[in-house]
Amino acid sequence: MKLKFAFLNLFLSCISLLIINTKFPFNLKAEELLKIELNTEIKKGKFLIGLKQYLGGENDSFSKKKTINFITDKGSINLISSNGIKHKSKQINITWVDIPIKNPKAIERIVFGPFASYESAKKQAEKLKDKGFETTVAYPNNWEVWIPFEDDLPEFEFENKIVRKIKNFQITPVLRSEYSVMKLEGPIHIYAEEEIKINGVNFGKKFYLLKDSYGTWTLVQKIEFDDYLAGVLPYEIGPNSPLEALKAQAVIARTWGIFNSDRFNMDKYHLCISTQCQVYKPFKITNKKVQLAIEATSNLILTYRNQPINAFYHGSNGGVSATAGESWQIQDYSYFNSVIDGSKSLNKIFKLPIKSESYLNNFLDFDKEQFYGSNHSLFRWNKKISSLEIKEKLIKKKLININDDVLGLNSIERGNSGRVTKLEILTNQVNKSIVLVKDDIRRVLNFIPSNLFTINKLSDDLWLLRGGGFGHGVGLSQSGAIEMAKLGFSYEQILDHYYRDVKLKKIEKLSQ
Q1: What's the rounded Cα separation, in Å, for the pair 107 and 50?
Q2: From the CB of residue 324, how many other CB atoms can be counted at a distance below 10 Å?
Q3: What is the β-pairing status of strands 462-467 and 476-477?
Q4: What values do phi and psi take at 289, rounded to 5?
């Protein structure tokens, strides 16, 4: 059996010489596939969603034995490749093969990062762009900023590294049938009148396979806004949430998606399906309440000065919301501000800013029933952490050496909401401490649910973090919105509560 697979791999590695590259006449020209206009798709009310990233590469967790299977129970599946190949069948198998490159290509770049979020990476890219550099925000595993390598580059104030790679082979998709093996080129359009199952999972009807910036490929789905939201709401706020909370989530998920639709511009699609974007899964059964919320708010978005807002949201703010500038290394948006998330009487008891540990401890000790969203499981939390746990995280992120020891933790700066914006970690090395800023705190110490916490020393190598909330704390609190809906607030009132001076506006879609 091993000999059989070895022979197969040898055959496929030589595929560039043996491949059948048959072209068929068809209505859609191959050149049209190359013109995937991201902005035009948004204006038509469609997202291009990266369902599966890094196909054919080392990080490919979706392709089984480097093969993707497309199948439909009814009708046929159509495949059109940009090199003119057309194929029609009830089942299509695409295999990834590594084809050697005759003249290996050297790649050199300066890489900044990793960054904890797209927002922080984009801010860094803007700073470099202002200095005259050509920048790219990339996501190979974490958010990074790339600039081309050149001789005599200046010393950068930001942490960076030089990356040099030799590209010896090209990851190439091939269409395998009973009688032939055909090399494909991207974009590859795959579509059917009926639902298509991909590796056994029902995803939809229209897809692309696109080559990304890392030499691998992405499975991309073209989907209507409202169909996309049907796969977002159940996994972001939950299908059993009150109707008004679902409506609020529908508006902000649509708004967030449109505002952030440039995240993967370099790879020719809009959004991913993980927590780096909005969690999306193909919906198998239509939820009537979710569908009603989407239909009731169809094409509605939140705007500020007639433009879509960056509609951040999260699980729980722990009773106080944050500004964007507290959570990420970016400038604030004027439609976010820190507010006590509860009744009017609560706002008389606590005044912002919350700057001291003692004041925040009083806040965390207060009757949580007075706050919106207090039913969330992490509305209040306690975490005991040891110096060894912290050390392991710092070593993993290459911030300290194995011989360094952690001696202390200090919150040296807080935002208006009381969130830690600078955390100092003292080590046994003279004049050496680690300072984590804003979103890097949770990126490095990923066992911390939020940056809203106080530090209580229990012993020389053990601390108790007392905190509240889950997530960054900016914009709508999903648990808060659920409770407000139960109290009788409309979705418009919920949105007004979490976003300041914004307006609901219906977007105009281009004709299909």
Answers
A1: 25
A2: 21
A3: unpaired
A4: -70, -40
- Tens of pLDDT, residue by residue over 222-278, are 999 999 999 999 999 999 999 999 999 999 999 999 999 999 999 999 999 999 999
Q: Do you find a cis peptide bond into 239, omega within 30 degrees of 0?
A: no
Cα angle 122-447-406, degrees, rounded to a multiple of 5: 95
Q: Give the C-alpha distances (Å, rounded to integers) separating 46 from 35, 49, 512.
A: 15, 9, 10
* Amino acid found at 104: P
Give the angle 256-236-281 at the CA atoms, nearest 5°.
95
As a dihedral over the C-alpha atoms of residue 475, residue 478, residue 484, residue 485, rounded to 10 degrees, the angle is 120
DSSP 3-state of 222:
strand
CA–CA dist 218, 208 (Å, integer): 8
Please tell me whether residue 15 adopts helix, strand or coil conformation.
helix
pLDDT digits (tens, 9 = 90+) for 433-454: 999 999 999 999 999 999 999 9
Alpha carbon of 360 to those of 47, 341, 350, 386, 473: distances in Å? 42, 15, 10, 22, 15
Q: b or e along 60-79 (b: 16 or more beta carbons within 10 Å of the residue's beta carbon)?
A: bebbeebebebbbeeeebbb
The burial of 307, by beta-carbon neighbours within 10 Å (0-12 exposed, 13-18 middle, 19 or more buried), is given as exposed
Show the DSSP H helices in 415-511 as ranges: 439-444, 478-486, 491-498
* Six-digit token string for 444: 């490095």
- The helix, strand and coil proportions of the chain, stated in percent and rounded to the nearest 5, come to 25, 35, 40
**Cα dist from 168 to 99, 186, 252, 313, whole Å:** 9, 20, 45, 43
Kindly report which listed range (284-293, 475-484, 485-494) carries the lowest average pLDDT score: 284-293
- pTM here is 0.89
Please give the pLDDT value at position 178.
75
Rounded CA-CA distance 256/249 in Å is 10
d(CA 65, CA 46): 32
